[in-house]
Specification:
Strand content: 15-25%
Strand order of the largest sheet: 3-2-1-4-5-7-6
Largest sheet: 7 strands, mixed
Distance between the termini: 42 Å
Order of helices and strands: HHHEHEHEEHEHHHEEHH
Length: about 240
């Protein structure tokens, strides 16, 4: 991640939640719940939320794996992590928040039962490398869920482009005091691969059985990829031996 992008997220951390609620009319909260539910987590599981921001997904994951589960939220913005700790650190002791690099996670292989990233993969310098890193730290049989923006088509797409090109930077600037940040976020959303193109990126990263679900007419997409380490990372001979066992 560039220092410029990190500084941008540091600058808008205090108003980030309010801006998300206003700009999405609150729908982002439903989308995040669908993301967590799609993972099928059980009580006692361990989960990782990458680009955790102010901790919304981490909190939902903690609720899903309660009472004995553990959740780690990682973000490259120290100010976002401070905000997440202030919101949920005391009320959700099962969550640990820390700064970290999505392309170089500090965790050992197969540490978690699932991992998520919400509206953050497009800000990773190499998204496929970031996906591979998330896959690495999830155990075989686990899942990685991604929530990201899309580019709807047709009449609805035209209406949404008017909204995203004009209203989002204007309102985002009013709420945060940083219009440039929301221009950047709109530009990255408009050109980032979505639908089948992003599914191809997940397959390239080694995921199995990638499910694609458009949300709200394609404004956002939910992706879930399953992790099977033996079929991708092991040699054919090792994989065959593991299957025979």
């Amino acid at each position: 991640m560039s220092d410029q992008v990190r500084q941008m997220f540091n600058a808008i951390a205090g108003s980030y939640d309010r801006a998300n609620d206003v700009l999405s009319f609150g729908t982002h909260r439903w989308w995040k719940r669908w993301l967590v539910r799609s993972l099928g987590l059980q009580p006692g599981a361990r989960a990782l939320d990458v680009a955790t921001g102010t901790g919304d997904i981490a909190r939902l994951l903690a609720e899903a794996v309660a009472p004995a589960g553990r959740v780690v939220g990682v973000d490259f913005s120290a100010t976002m992590i401070e905000r997440a700790r202030a919101r949920f650190g005391a009320s959700h002791p099962a969550i640990t928040f820390e700064t970290g690099d999505a392309m170089n996670l500090r965790f050992e292989d197969e540490t978690f039962d699932a991992a998520t990233i919400s509206f953050g993969i497009r800000n990773v310098d190499d998204p496929v490398a970031g996906l591979r890193e998330m896959r690495r730290v999830v155990r075989s049989g686990g899942a990685v869920g991604v929530l990201e923006t899309g580019q709807p088509r047709g009449v609805w797409g035209g209406i949404y482009r008017i909204y995203s090109d004009n209203v989002i930077p204007f309102i985002g600037g009013l709420v945060s005091g940083n219009r440039a940040a929301y221009r950047y976020l709109d530009r990255t959303a408009a050109r980032f691969p979505c639908g089948e193109r992003f599914r191809a990126m997940m397959l390239e990263a080694g995921f199995e059985n990638v499910v694609v679900r458009p949300l709200f007419g394609g404004i956002a997409y939910l992706y879930v990829g399953r992790v099977e380490h033996t079929s991708r990372s092991a040699s054919p001979a090792v994989a065959e031996e593991a299957h025979a066992r």
